[in-house]
Protein backbone atom coordinates (compact mmCIF):
# COMPACT_ATOMS: atom_id res chain seq x y z
CA UNK A 1 0.00 0.00 0.00
CA UNK A 2 1.44 3.38 -1.05
CA UNK A 3 0.25 5.38 1.93
CA UNK A 4 1.45 8.84 0.94
CA UNK A 5 0.02 8.42 -2.55
CA UNK A 6 -3.35 7.63 -0.97
CA UNK A 7 -3.09 10.56 1.48
CA UNK A 8 -2.22 13.00 -1.29
CA UNK A 9 -4.95 11.75 -3.64
CA UNK A 10 -7.67 12.05 -1.01
CA UNK A 11 -6.28 15.16 0.72
CA UNK A 12 -5.64 13.61 4.14
CA UNK A 13 -3.79 15.75 6.67
CA UNK A 14 -2.44 13.18 9.13
CA UNK A 15 -2.18 9.48 9.87
CA UNK A 16 -0.79 8.53 13.25
CA UNK A 17 0.22 5.03 14.35
CA UNK A 18 0.14 4.72 18.15
CA UNK A 19 1.83 1.98 20.14
CA UNK A 20 2.04 1.87 23.92
CA UNK A 21 4.20 -1.06 25.07
CA UNK A 22 2.93 -0.99 28.67
CA UNK A 23 -0.79 -1.39 27.90
CA UNK A 24 -0.41 -3.12 24.53
CA UNK A 25 -2.31 -0.32 22.79
CA UNK A 26 -2.18 -0.41 19.02
CA UNK A 27 -4.23 2.40 17.56
CA UNK A 28 -4.46 4.49 14.43
CA UNK A 29 -5.68 8.08 14.43
CA UNK A 30 -6.54 9.62 11.11
CA UNK A 31 -7.22 13.34 10.74
CA UNK A 32 -8.68 13.91 7.30
CA UNK A 33 -9.46 17.62 7.21
CA UNK A 34 -9.39 20.50 9.69
CA UNK A 35 -10.50 23.31 7.35
CA UNK A 36 -13.70 23.87 9.31
CA UNK A 37 -12.19 23.35 12.76
CA UNK A 38 -10.74 20.65 15.01
CA UNK A 39 -11.51 17.23 13.59
CA UNK A 40 -14.08 15.10 15.40
CA UNK A 41 -14.75 11.40 14.96
CA UNK A 42 -15.32 8.41 17.21
CA UNK A 43 -12.90 5.70 18.26
CA UNK A 44 -13.75 2.24 16.96
CA UNK A 45 -12.43 -0.87 18.68
CA UNK A 46 -12.36 -3.86 16.37
CA UNK A 47 -10.50 -7.13 15.92
CA UNK A 48 -9.15 -6.31 12.47
CA UNK A 49 -7.86 -9.21 10.37
CA UNK A 50 -4.80 -7.17 9.35
CA UNK A 51 -3.10 -3.85 9.99
CA UNK A 52 -3.89 -2.79 6.46
CA UNK A 53 -7.58 -3.38 7.08
CA UNK A 54 -7.39 -1.23 10.23
CA UNK A 55 -5.58 1.59 8.42
CA UNK A 56 -8.05 1.51 5.54
CA UNK A 57 -10.98 1.61 7.95
CA UNK A 58 -9.53 4.63 9.78
CA UNK A 59 -8.87 6.41 6.47
CA UNK A 60 -12.31 5.67 5.00
CA UNK A 61 -14.21 6.56 8.17
CA UNK A 62 -12.23 9.78 8.78
CA UNK A 63 -13.04 11.07 5.30
CA UNK A 64 -16.68 10.14 5.86
CA UNK A 65 -16.69 12.26 9.01
CA UNK A 66 -15.36 15.29 7.11
CA UNK A 67 -18.32 15.02 4.74
CA UNK A 68 -20.86 14.36 7.48
CA UNK A 69 -19.66 17.22 9.70
CA UNK A 70 -19.32 19.69 6.84
CA UNK A 71 -22.74 18.94 5.38
CA UNK A 72 -24.33 19.20 8.83
CA UNK A 73 -23.07 22.78 9.06
CA UNK A 74 -20.79 22.01 12.02
CA UNK A 75 -17.61 23.99 12.52
CA UNK A 76 -15.52 20.87 12.87
CA UNK A 77 -13.40 18.77 10.59
CA UNK A 78 -13.36 15.03 10.09
CA UNK A 79 -11.28 12.33 11.76
CA UNK A 80 -11.54 8.83 13.13
CA UNK A 81 -9.52 6.51 15.32
CA UNK A 82 -9.38 2.75 15.50
CA UNK A 83 -8.01 0.60 18.28
CA UNK A 84 -6.95 -2.87 17.18
CA UNK A 85 -8.37 -5.40 19.62
CA UNK A 86 -11.33 -7.37 20.86
CA UNK A 87 -13.71 -5.00 22.63
CA UNK A 88 -15.03 -7.88 24.75
CA UNK A 89 -11.62 -9.03 26.04
CA UNK A 90 -8.93 -6.43 25.51
CA UNK A 91 -10.27 -3.30 27.21
CA UNK A 92 -8.51 -1.81 30.24
CA UNK A 93 -8.11 1.51 31.98
CA UNK A 94 -4.43 1.53 31.00
CA UNK A 95 -5.27 0.99 27.32
CA UNK A 96 -7.76 3.86 27.09
CA UNK A 97 -5.61 6.20 29.16
CA UNK A 98 -2.67 5.48 26.88
CA UNK A 99 -4.92 6.23 23.93
CA UNK A 100 -6.03 9.44 25.67
CA UNK A 101 -2.41 10.56 25.89
CA UNK A 102 -2.04 10.18 22.14
CA UNK A 103 -5.20 12.24 21.63
CA UNK A 104 -3.78 14.87 23.99
CA UNK A 105 -0.55 14.87 22.00
CA UNK A 106 -2.45 16.11 18.97
CA UNK A 107 -3.04 19.35 20.84
CA UNK A 108 -6.74 19.72 20.02
CA UNK A 109 -6.52 18.90 16.30
CA UNK A 110 -8.46 15.72 17.08
CA UNK A 111 -11.49 15.26 19.36
CA UNK A 112 -12.63 11.73 20.00
CA UNK A 113 -15.96 10.17 21.01
CA UNK A 114 -17.48 6.70 21.22
CA UNK A 115 -18.10 4.43 18.26
CA UNK A 116 -18.59 0.72 17.53
CA UNK A 117 -16.83 -1.26 20.26
CA UNK A 118 -16.34 1.67 22.66
CA UNK A 119 -18.68 3.15 25.25
CA UNK A 120 -19.07 6.14 27.56
CA UNK A 121 -17.03 4.43 30.33
CA UNK A 122 -14.08 4.14 27.91
CA UNK A 123 -14.45 7.85 27.15
CA UNK A 124 -14.27 8.59 30.87
CA UNK A 125 -10.83 6.92 30.99
CA UNK A 126 -9.71 8.92 27.96
CA UNK A 127 -10.94 12.07 29.71
CA UNK A 128 -8.47 11.41 32.55
CA UNK A 129 -5.70 12.23 30.06
CA UNK A 130 -7.26 14.79 27.74
CA UNK A 131 -10.13 17.27 27.42
CA UNK A 132 -10.39 16.47 23.74
CA UNK A 133 -13.12 13.88 24.13
CA UNK A 134 -16.90 14.21 23.90
CA UNK A 135 -19.84 11.97 24.81
CA UNK A 136 -18.78 11.25 28.37
CA UNK A 137 -20.65 9.15 30.88
CA UNK A 138 -19.75 10.63 34.23
CA UNK A 139 -19.18 14.33 33.58
CA UNK A 140 -22.07 16.67 34.33
CA UNK A 141 -23.39 18.45 31.26
CA UNK A 142 -22.38 15.73 28.81
CA UNK A 143 -24.66 14.98 25.87
CA UNK A 144 -25.34 11.33 26.75
CA UNK A 145 -26.54 8.59 24.38
CA UNK A 146 -26.69 10.09 20.85
CA UNK A 147 -29.20 7.53 19.51
CA UNK A 148 -32.44 9.39 20.36
CA UNK A 149 -31.12 12.49 18.57
CA UNK A 150 -30.04 10.38 15.60
CA UNK A 151 -33.56 8.97 15.47
CA UNK A 152 -35.09 12.44 15.79
CA UNK A 153 -32.95 13.81 12.95
CA UNK A 154 -33.75 10.79 10.80
CA UNK A 155 -37.45 11.34 11.42
CA UNK A 156 -37.11 14.98 10.32
CA UNK A 157 -35.20 13.86 7.23
CA UNK A 158 -37.89 11.32 6.35
CA UNK A 159 -40.46 14.13 6.56
CA UNK A 160 -38.41 16.26 4.15
CA UNK A 161 -38.39 13.33 1.71
CA UNK A 162 -42.13 12.85 2.13
CA UNK A 163 -42.63 16.52 1.34
CA UNK A 164 -40.54 16.23 -1.81
CA UNK A 165 -42.43 13.15 -3.04
CA UNK A 166 -45.99 13.70 -1.84
CA UNK A 167 -46.08 17.45 -1.14
CA UNK A 168 -46.71 16.99 2.59
CA UNK A 169 -44.56 16.27 5.65
CA UNK A 170 -47.20 14.05 7.17
CA UNK A 171 -46.33 10.40 7.68
CA UNK A 172 -49.79 9.49 8.95
CA UNK A 173 -51.02 6.29 7.28
CA UNK A 174 -47.74 5.92 5.38
CA UNK A 175 -46.47 2.34 5.33
CA UNK A 176 -42.90 2.26 6.58
CA UNK A 177 -40.59 -0.77 6.69
CA UNK A 178 -37.90 -0.45 9.35
CA UNK A 179 -34.85 -2.72 9.32
CA UNK A 180 -33.04 -2.82 12.67
CA UNK A 181 -34.76 -2.08 15.98
CA UNK A 182 -31.78 -1.24 18.17
CA UNK A 183 -31.05 2.09 19.82
CA UNK A 184 -31.95 4.24 16.83
CA UNK A 185 -34.53 1.93 15.23
CA UNK A 186 -36.66 1.70 18.37
CA UNK A 187 -36.68 5.47 18.96
CA UNK A 188 -37.51 6.09 15.30
CA UNK A 189 -40.39 3.59 15.38
CA UNK A 190 -41.82 5.48 18.33
CA UNK A 191 -41.78 8.78 16.45
CA UNK A 192 -43.29 7.18 13.34
CA UNK A 193 -45.96 5.34 15.32
CA UNK A 194 -46.89 8.49 17.29
CA UNK A 195 -47.51 10.19 13.97
CA UNK A 196 -49.83 7.46 12.75
CA UNK A 197 -47.57 5.53 10.37
CA UNK A 198 -48.11 1.81 9.77
CA UNK A 199 -44.96 -0.11 10.62
CA UNK A 200 -43.46 -3.32 9.23
CA UNK A 201 -40.35 -4.17 11.20
CA UNK A 202 -37.53 -6.65 11.41
CA UNK A 203 -34.45 -7.46 13.46
CA UNK A 204 -32.28 -10.52 13.99
CA UNK A 205 -32.81 -10.02 17.71
CA UNK A 206 -36.22 -11.52 18.54
CA UNK A 207 -36.60 -9.51 21.78
CA UNK A 208 -36.14 -6.23 19.92
CA UNK A 209 -38.83 -7.27 17.45
CA UNK A 210 -41.30 -8.27 20.15
CA UNK A 211 -40.80 -4.95 21.95
CA UNK A 212 -41.63 -2.88 18.87
CA UNK A 213 -44.57 -5.11 17.93
CA UNK A 214 -45.97 -4.69 21.43
CA UNK A 215 -45.22 -0.99 21.94
CA UNK A 216 -46.11 0.32 18.47
CA UNK A 217 -48.55 -2.22 17.01
CA UNK A 218 -46.00 -3.04 14.31
CA UNK A 219 -46.13 -6.07 12.04
CA UNK A 220 -43.04 -8.28 12.25
CA UNK A 221 -41.46 -9.78 9.15
CA UNK A 222 -38.44 -12.08 8.83
CA UNK A 223 -35.09 -10.30 8.33
CA UNK A 224 -34.80 -11.46 4.70
CA UNK A 225 -38.39 -10.42 3.91
CA UNK A 226 -38.05 -6.73 4.78
CA UNK A 227 -36.88 -5.93 1.22
CA UNK A 228 -40.12 -7.34 -0.24
CA UNK A 229 -42.53 -5.30 1.88
CA UNK A 230 -44.81 -3.21 -0.27
CA UNK A 231 -44.29 0.14 1.44
CA UNK A 232 -44.02 3.88 0.97
CA UNK A 233 -40.71 4.21 2.80
CA UNK A 234 -37.93 1.75 3.49
CA UNK A 235 -35.87 2.78 6.52
CA UNK A 236 -32.57 0.92 7.01
CA UNK A 237 -31.42 1.25 10.63
CA UNK A 238 -29.18 -1.79 11.01
CA UNK A 239 -26.33 -2.56 8.66
CA UNK A 240 -24.40 -0.99 5.81
CA UNK A 241 -24.28 -2.19 2.18
CA UNK A 242 -27.91 -3.34 2.23
CA UNK A 243 -28.71 -1.45 -0.97
CA UNK A 244 -27.10 -3.66 -3.56
CA UNK A 245 -27.68 -5.68 -6.74
CA UNK A 246 -29.63 -8.34 -4.88
CA UNK A 247 -31.92 -6.09 -2.84
CA UNK A 248 -32.70 -3.25 -5.29
CA UNK A 249 -34.88 -5.35 -7.65
CA UNK A 250 -36.94 -6.44 -4.63
CA UNK A 251 -37.58 -2.98 -3.19
CA UNK A 252 -41.11 -1.73 -3.48
CA UNK A 253 -40.94 1.80 -2.07
CA UNK A 254 -40.83 5.46 -3.11
CA UNK A 255 -38.28 6.59 -0.52
CA UNK A 256 -35.26 5.05 1.21
CA UNK A 257 -34.43 7.00 4.35
CA UNK A 258 -32.87 5.53 7.46
CA UNK A 259 -30.07 5.92 9.97
CA UNK A 260 -27.69 3.11 8.98
CA UNK A 261 -24.22 4.13 7.85
CA UNK A 262 -22.92 3.34 4.35
CA UNK A 263 -26.24 2.03 3.02
CA UNK A 264 -25.16 1.93 -0.62
CA UNK A 265 -22.92 -1.07 -1.25
CA UNK A 266 -21.30 0.86 -4.08
CA UNK A 267 -21.95 4.36 -5.38
CA UNK A 268 -23.42 2.96 -8.59
CA UNK A 269 -26.31 1.61 -6.51
CA UNK A 270 -27.28 5.23 -5.86
CA UNK A 271 -27.37 5.72 -9.64
CA UNK A 272 -29.67 2.71 -10.02
CA UNK A 273 -32.05 4.04 -7.35
CA UNK A 274 -32.27 7.34 -9.20
CA UNK A 275 -33.06 5.58 -12.47
CA UNK A 276 -35.78 3.60 -10.69
CA UNK A 277 -37.31 6.82 -9.36
CA UNK A 278 -36.67 5.95 -5.70
CA UNK A 279 -35.68 8.97 -3.61
CA UNK A 280 -32.64 8.07 -1.50
CA UNK A 281 -31.85 10.25 1.54
CA UNK A 282 -28.03 10.07 1.76
CA UNK A 283 -27.11 8.38 5.02
CA UNK A 284 -24.55 10.87 6.28
CA UNK A 285 -27.02 13.72 5.83
CA UNK A 286 -29.99 12.11 7.53
CA UNK A 287 -28.14 10.35 10.38
CA UNK A 288 -26.12 13.38 11.53
CA UNK A 289 -28.28 13.95 14.63
CA UNK A 290 -25.89 12.06 16.89
CA UNK A 291 -22.79 13.99 15.91
CA UNK A 292 -24.67 17.29 15.99
CA UNK A 293 -25.75 16.43 19.53
CA UNK A 294 -22.28 15.45 20.72
CA UNK A 295 -20.77 18.58 19.15
CA UNK A 296 -23.01 20.74 21.26
CA UNK A 297 -20.95 19.62 24.24
CA UNK A 298 -17.95 21.39 22.72
CA UNK A 299 -19.64 24.79 22.51
CA UNK A 300 -19.07 27.50 25.05
CA UNK A 301 -21.02 26.88 28.24
CA UNK A 302 -21.32 23.16 27.57
CA UNK A 303 -24.19 21.03 26.39
CA UNK A 304 -27.58 22.64 25.94
CA UNK A 305 -30.31 20.17 25.00
CA UNK A 306 -32.74 22.73 23.53
CA UNK A 307 -30.01 24.18 21.32
CA UNK A 308 -28.98 20.67 20.25
CA UNK A 309 -32.56 19.80 19.30
CA UNK A 310 -32.87 22.99 17.22
CA UNK A 311 -29.65 22.11 15.42
CA UNK A 312 -30.74 18.52 14.79
CA UNK A 313 -33.94 19.86 13.26
CA UNK A 314 -31.87 21.51 10.50
CA UNK A 315 -31.53 18.02 9.02
CA UNK A 316 -34.96 18.67 7.49
CA UNK A 317 -33.61 21.65 5.52
CA UNK A 318 -30.39 19.83 4.72
CA UNK A 319 -32.23 16.94 3.09
CA UNK A 320 -34.22 19.48 1.08
CA UNK A 321 -30.97 21.22 0.07
CA UNK A 322 -29.54 17.91 -1.15
CA UNK A 323 -32.67 17.20 -3.18
CA UNK A 324 -32.45 20.70 -4.68
CA UNK A 325 -28.77 20.24 -5.62
CA UNK A 326 -29.61 16.87 -7.18
CA UNK A 327 -32.27 18.57 -9.31
CA UNK A 328 -30.01 21.53 -10.14
CA UNK A 329 -27.08 19.38 -11.23
CA UNK A 330 -29.19 16.50 -12.55
CA UNK A 331 -27.31 13.99 -10.40
CA UNK A 332 -28.34 11.31 -7.88
CA UNK A 333 -28.81 12.47 -4.30
CA UNK A 334 -25.68 10.73 -2.98
CA UNK A 335 -23.59 12.87 -5.34
CA UNK A 336 -25.53 15.98 -4.36
CA UNK A 337 -24.74 15.26 -0.70
CA UNK A 338 -21.02 15.17 -1.51
CA UNK A 339 -21.37 18.45 -3.37
CA UNK A 340 -23.03 20.08 -0.35
CA UNK A 341 -20.09 19.11 1.86
CA UNK A 342 -17.38 19.88 -0.71
CA UNK A 343 -18.83 23.31 -1.54
CA UNK A 344 -18.76 24.32 2.12
CA UNK A 345 -15.16 23.17 2.60
CA UNK A 346 -14.03 24.83 -0.64
CA UNK A 347 -15.55 28.17 0.35
CA UNK A 348 -14.05 28.04 3.84
CA UNK A 349 -10.61 27.14 2.45
CA UNK A 350 -10.84 30.19 0.23
CA UNK A 351 -11.91 32.39 3.15
CA UNK A 352 -8.98 31.12 5.23
CA UNK A 353 -6.52 31.75 2.40
CA UNK A 354 -7.78 35.30 1.91
CA UNK A 355 -7.63 35.93 5.65
CA UNK A 356 -4.06 34.64 5.90
CA UNK A 357 -3.00 36.77 2.95
CA UNK A 358 -4.53 39.86 4.55
CA UNK A 359 -2.59 39.15 7.75
P1 LIG B 1 -27.74 -0.99 17.46
O1 LIG B 1 -26.62 -1.97 17.49
O2 LIG B 1 -28.33 -0.52 18.73
O3 LIG B 1 -28.94 -1.57 16.57
C1 LIG B 1 -28.75 -2.25 15.38
C2 LIG B 1 -29.85 -3.29 15.29
O4 LIG B 1 -29.78 -3.93 14.01
C3 LIG B 1 -29.70 -4.40 16.35
O5 LIG B 1 -30.92 -4.55 17.06
C4 LIG B 1 -29.36 -5.64 15.52
O6 LIG B 1 -29.86 -6.84 16.08
C5 LIG B 1 -30.03 -5.31 14.21
N1 LIG B 1 -29.52 -6.06 13.07
C6 LIG B 1 -28.26 -6.47 12.82
N2 LIG B 1 -28.23 -7.17 11.69
C7 LIG B 1 -29.48 -7.19 11.19
C8 LIG B 1 -30.08 -7.77 10.04
N3 LIG B 1 -29.37 -8.47 9.16
N4 LIG B 1 -31.40 -7.59 9.85
C9 LIG B 1 -32.14 -6.91 10.74
N5 LIG B 1 -31.63 -6.35 11.85
C10 LIG B 1 -30.32 -6.49 12.08
O7 LIG B 1 -27.19 0.24 16.59
P2 LIG B 1 -27.81 1.69 16.52
O8 LIG B 1 -27.05 2.58 17.43
O9 LIG B 1 -29.28 1.63 16.61
O10 LIG B 1 -27.40 2.11 15.03
C11 LIG B 1 -28.10 1.62 13.92
C12 LIG B 1 -27.43 2.09 12.64
O11 LIG B 1 -27.39 3.51 12.59
C13 LIG B 1 -25.98 1.64 12.46
O12 LIG B 1 -25.71 1.45 11.11
C14 LIG B 1 -25.18 2.83 12.97
O13 LIG B 1 -23.89 2.86 12.41
C15 LIG B 1 -26.04 3.96 12.46
N6 LIG B 1 -25.87 5.20 13.22
C16 LIG B 1 -26.14 5.22 14.55
C17 LIG B 1 -25.99 6.41 15.25
C18 LIG B 1 -26.31 6.48 16.72
O14 LIG B 1 -26.42 7.59 17.26
N7 LIG B 1 -26.48 5.36 17.41
C19 LIG B 1 -25.55 7.57 14.59
C20 LIG B 1 -25.31 7.53 13.21
C21 LIG B 1 -25.47 6.33 12.54
Shape: globular
For the report, how would you describe the main beta sheet?
6 strands, mixed
> N-to-C SSE series?
HEEEEHEHEHHEHEHEEEHEHHHHH
Give the beta-strand count. Answer: 12
Mean model confidence by pLDDT: 95
Element layout with pairings:
Elements: H1 3-9, E1 14-20, E2 25-33, E3 39-40, E4 43-46, H2 51-71, E5 77-84, H3 93-105, E6 110-111, H4 120-127, H5 147-166, E7 175-179, H6 183-194, E8 198-202, H7 206-216, E9 219-220, E10 233-236, E11 255-256, H8 267-276, E12 279-280, H9 283-286, H10 289-296, H11 305-312, H12 315-329, H13 333-358
Helix pairs in contact: 2-13, 3-4, 5-6, 5-10, 5-12, 6-7, 10-11, 12-13
The chain binds nicotinamide-adenine-dinucleotide.
Description:
- The chain is α/β, with parallel strands linked by helices and 359 residues long.
- It folds into 2 domains: 113 residues, Leucine Dehydrogenase, chain A, domain 1 (Rossmann fold, 3-Layer(aba) Sandwich); 168 residues, NAD(P)-binding Rossmann-like Domain (Rossmann fold, 3-Layer(aba) Sandwich), CATH 3.40.50.
- It has 13 helices and 12 strands.
- The strands form 2 sheets. Strands 1, 2, 3, 4, 5 and 6 form a 6-stranded mixed sheet that branches. Strands 9-8-7-10-11-12 form a 6-stranded parallel sheet, sandwiched between helices.
- Strand 8, helix 7 and strand 9 form a beta-alpha-beta unit.
- Bound molecules: nicotinamide-adenine-dinucleotide (NAD).
- Nicotinamide-adenine-dinucleotide (NAD) binds next to helix 5 and helix 6.
Amino acid sequence: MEIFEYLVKNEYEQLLMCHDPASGLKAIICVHDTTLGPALGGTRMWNYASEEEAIMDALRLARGMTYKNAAAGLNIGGAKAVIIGDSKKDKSEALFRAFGRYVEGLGGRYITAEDVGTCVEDMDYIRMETHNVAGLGSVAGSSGDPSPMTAYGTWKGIKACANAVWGSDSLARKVIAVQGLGHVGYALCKLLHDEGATLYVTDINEDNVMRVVKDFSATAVKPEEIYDVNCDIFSPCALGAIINDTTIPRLNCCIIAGAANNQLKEERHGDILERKGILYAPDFIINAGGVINVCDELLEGGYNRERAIRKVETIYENVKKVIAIAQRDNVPTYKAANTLAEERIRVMRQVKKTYLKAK
